[in-house]
Design a protein that fits this description.
2 domains, 12 helices, 44% helix
Length: 332
């Protein structure tokens, strides 16, 4: 283990692309070998084209790279021992680059590195935390509603819940799939709601306003159990909706005492049904409204990222935009 330098993932991806292009052109490029420290982000079991077992996954250092692990290498046993789930952690790897991409041959955990140093930070945690509090205060909810949000999110204590809330990703592969993405998403949902509620009479009712803001603040709380730094965990098959309901249940008496039983179950309906047609269809107006705001925020964030990355184009007439390989009509 002669080299403990951190691997530059951007350079590594360029080399992989060059090798694959040469292979496509009929050349036989020499295999490149190297070693260094990266963050092991996630992995899963798979099989090769011939049916042999292997592991596939992602390493990260600001950017990400996909990898393979063959079952005849020293690294294979390391990954077997990490099952059934693993949290992202710094590792030293010995790798090779070929037409198969990045292959990890040997691997071991290393100390002295902060996992946070390998992760791309789109958001400033202090700014997002402050914005979250400000957006809740600006919503005009009652002191009872604020007390519920504080209790359920553990915002007055520094523990596993409040820490994961600040650090966790909002998604695995799309909107706000980055550190602090979860809190950023929740904040933007509340800000969207604050911006539209003044136009609709039914949202001016204090009870309705309390219910909506509490629901928006809590709708994705299950993601602190579903994922760890954007990596799905052992019981993620229950989804953040079911895990979020489990988190909420110990606060039932508090919510019923401050409001009533119907209020509590309305919040439950939001946690379970806020994905709409992508999950369980909403059965309350509040679940439907949170789904609409949640979906709009996710799409707006995705569009924001696409524009920032210049990852879109339009046709000659300017009536269609293209991203993710598909054209969308602008004019209908």
């Amino acid at each position: 283990m002669a080299d403990l330098s951190v691997i530059n993932i951007a350079d590594l991806n360029k080399k992989i692309l060059e090798i694959q292009r040469s292979t496509d052109n009929g050349d036989t490029p020499a295999e490149i070998r190297g070693e260094g420290v990266v963050l092991l982000k996630n992995f899963s079991q798979g099989t090769t084209a011939s049916g042999k077992p292997k592991f596939i996954g992602t390493i990260e250092n600001i950017e990400e790279a996909k990898f393979n692990v063959w079952n005849n290498t020293g690294a294979y046993e390391y990954f077997e021992q990490l099952l059934p789930d693993s949290k992202p952690h710094p590792v030293w790897i010995n790798y090779s680059l070929s037409k198969y991409g990045l292959v990890i041959n040997n691997i071991m955990a290393v100390d002295g590195y902060n996992p946070e140093d390998f992760i791309f930070h789109k958001y400033n945690r202090k700014e997002i935390s402050s914005s979250f509090v400000t957006s809740i205060k600006a919503s005009g909810i009652s002191d009872n509603a604020i007390a519920i949000i504080r209790a359920v999110l553990h915002t007055d204590v520094c523990d596993a819940v409040s820490i994961r809330l600040i650090y966790e990703y909002a998604a695995y592969s799309h909107h706000d799939n980055c550190a602090t993405g979860l809190l950023a998403h929740m904040t933007k949902c509340i800000r969207l709601y604050n911006g539209i509620k003044g136009s609709y009479n039914f949202l001016s009712d204090q009870r309705t306003n309390d219910l909506m803001v509490i629901s928006l603040a809590l709708h994705d709380i299950g993601k602190i159990y579903e994922m760890h730094d954007g990596v799905y965990q052992r019981y993620s098959f229950l989804t953040h909706r079911g895990l979020g309901l489990e988190h909420l249940m110990p606060f039932k008496k508090m919510i019923v005492d401050l409001y009533d039983e119907e209020f509590f179950y309305m919040i439950c309906s939001v946690l379970l049904q806020h994905h709409g047609e992508y999950g369980e269809n909403p059965r309350t107006i509040y679940a439907m409204l949170v789904h609409m705001i949640d979906d709009m925020e996710a799409h707006l964030t995705s569009i924001d990222d696409i524009i920032a990355d210049h990852a879109y184009s339009s046709d000659a007439s300017g009536t269609k935009i293209k991203y993710n390989g598909s054209y969308l009509n602008i004019l209908g």
